[in-house]
Specification:
Layout lengths: L2 H8 L4 E6 L3 H16 L3 E2 L10 E6 L6 H18 L4 E6 H6 L1 H6 L5 E3 L7 H11 L3 E3 L20 E5 L1 E2 L10 H5 L3 E2 L2 H13 L4 E5 L15 H9 L7 E5 L8 H9 L6 E3 L7 H7 L5 H14 L4 E8 L6 H14 L3 E6 L17 H24 L5 E6 L7 H4 L1 E5 L5 E5 L10 E5 L2 E2 L4 E3 L5 E3 L2 H14 L30
Parallel strand pairs: 1-2, 1-3, 3-4, 4-5, 5-6, 7-10, 10-11, 12-13, 13-14, 17-20
Antiparallel strand pairs: 8-9, 15-16, 15-18, 16-17, 18-21, 19-20
Helix pairs in contact: 9-10, 13-14
């Protein structure tokens, strides 16, 4: 008898909670995990459950040096709760599970299920098997069993969605463990991607973000070097799709046909996240990043020539082994030349299993911290200057949900501009819903957001807003859900201090 049948027999519905760490790929995987569990008859635990669900799933990341400490600390916090709650189960999946395998149940024997990045579709089966056999189930697949797009999904937004176009990565960056855990790049067929996009638009979604570990390398697995630019143009022909974004590309694979597709496809937004990692050719070589400073700045120059109002963001690692003061100055030089709208800056930390962790000349913590603070100060200054250029511009915003933390107190709403800048605007008398579009004039700029303090110039109700309204009404008829800790669509504010990013973006 299945878990669903047993639950119905005793009149009990089991609840679940998912805790997500890491990059957008993990975020999207958690949407799949939620869909799988709900398809198996589980319901999300009420908001603030904090481990009081019947099933708690950790979707882990192995990027940060202390990722395992964080996981085991959280697992330890749940141990006494599980001891007092008969039938409660704990599952650990994601990159850290793929990496540590049997170590997890040895250190935390109260864990019921361990699964990897390649077999997330097995979670309900493994939970049932652990319950029946009354012992931990550890199942780590060495290669992808099924492309995640074939799995049920519980998407967190009614108006914006991730669409995975590939999994895995063929690069060998010395600081990154992701290829070892996610495997070689595997591309989806273009027809399957477009079918998913069209289905999402049919459900009311008006913005999609194409997702991959190295998104613009798309096509290497199917033998077409221009496959990504063709995909962008094809998205431009999907009726009802208003906004297309993608993350994260690699400078090595960023070709002129992609720039042309961005410039010539109206619904591809004027936004580019292009990881730099370092401005020093010496450090880039040590990182095994297959481009140099001139190549990087040349791409930025071409993008700006083709798309003058493009907002360009980046990732930068400070304190990579062997980085000299001169190397760091080269990074500052690129930041000044590129004039990023924002930079996600990370202090290098060792990742067990990566070549960089064994390199000589590891930089002292105090030196890394001092360089990090200098970089952040420079980027804050540039971000503010670039945002000030937006004052006086008239922008159409997609109204966002939950992105303005002070909106209630300030009587404002928040939305994303085409270039993904966050704009807080005066709440109009006319009702507007997340997914609707409003036109405003920017009146003030801060380093990480813009304000439109005047009256809203126009409100355009959309099918995406209708979809949000329908989902909200349906949710109101059910117990309150719990968020998965997912980042908002668009570019979030940079974290004050974080370990370096090796995934799509941490």
């Amino acid at each position: 008898m299945s878990s669903i049948d047993r639950s119905r027999e005793v009149g009990v519905t089991r609840s679940y909670e998912i805790r997500t760490y890491g990059c957008q790929m993990n975020v999207h995987d958690s949407e799949r995990l939620a869909g799988l569990l709900e398809d198996a008859g589980y319901v999300r635990a009420p908001e603030g459950a904090d481990g009081d669900a019947d099933v708690v799933v950790f979707n882990t990341c192995a990027v940060r040096e202390n990722a395992d400490n964080r996981l085991y600390g959280n697992l330890g916090h749940l141990a006494p709760k599980k001891a007092k709650r008969p039938g409660m189960q704990i599952a650990v999946g994601g990159c850290l599970a793929q990496k540590d395998r049997d170590t997890i149940v040895k250190k935390a024997p109260w864990v019921d299920v361990v699964f990897g990045t390649h077999n997330i579709g097995k979670l309900p089966v493994l939970l049932e098997r652990a319950r029946v056999q009354e012992e931990a189930q550890v199942e780590i697949a060495e290669s992808l069993e099924a492309f995640p797009s074939t799995l049920p999904t519980r998407r967190e937004s009614a108006y914006a969605a991730w669409v995975s176009i590939s999994v895995g990565c063929n690069n060998t960056c010395t600081f990154c463990i992701v290829p070892a855990l996610r495997g070689k790049e595997k591309d989806r067929r273009p027809g399957d991607i477009l079918a998913e996009v069209e289905a999402l638009v049919g459900e009311g979604v008006s913005e999609i973000t194409l997702l991959g570990q190295n998104v613009n390398a798309y096509g290497s697995d199917i033998g077409d070097r221009e496959a990504f630019s063709k995909l962008l143009r094809a998205c431009g022909r999907v009726e009802g799709l208003e906004r297309v974004r993608f993350t994260s590309p690699h400078p090595r694979d960023f070709t002129d046909d992609v720039i042309a597709a961005m410039a010539e496809t109206p619904n591809v937004m004027p936004q580019l996240h292009m990881p730099l990692q370092s401005g020093s050719d010496t450090v880039l070589k040590a990182m095994r990043r297959s481009y140099r400073q001139d190549r990087y700045l040349g791409i930025i120059e071409k993008v700006r020539a083709a798309i003058p109002h493009a907002a360009i963001t980046t990732d930068i690692i400070v304190g990579f082994p062997g980085e000299t003061e001169e190397d760091f100055e080269q990074t500052l030089h690129v930041v000044r030349e590129a004039r990023f709208a924002q930079a996600f800056t990370f202090q290098y930390s060792k990742r067990p299993g990566t070549p960089a962790a064994e390199m000589e000349n590891q930089i002292p913590k105090e030196v890394v911290q001092a360089r990090y603070e200098r970089l952040v100060a420079l980027q804050e200054e540039i971000s503010w200057e670039e945002n000030k250029k937006q004052v006086g511009r008239t922008l159409e915003l997609m109204v966002a949900e939950g992105e303005g933390r002070k909106d209630g107190a300030t009587h404002r709403l928040s939305g994303r501009a085409p270039d993904s800048r966050l704009v807080h605007f005066t709440k109009p008398e006319q009702e507007v819903r997340p997914g609707d579009m409003v036109t405003v004039e920017v009146t003030y700029a801060a380093p990480h957001h813009l304000l439109a303090e005047g009256a809203v110039l126009d409100v355009r109700r959309t099918r995406a807003g209708d979809a949000w309204e329908q989902r909200t009404a349906a949710a109101a008829a059910k117990p309150a859900g719990v968020l998965l800790g997912l980042p908002k669509v668009g570019v979030p504010e940079p974290l004050p201090v974080a370990a370096n990013s090796g995934c799509v973006r941490d």
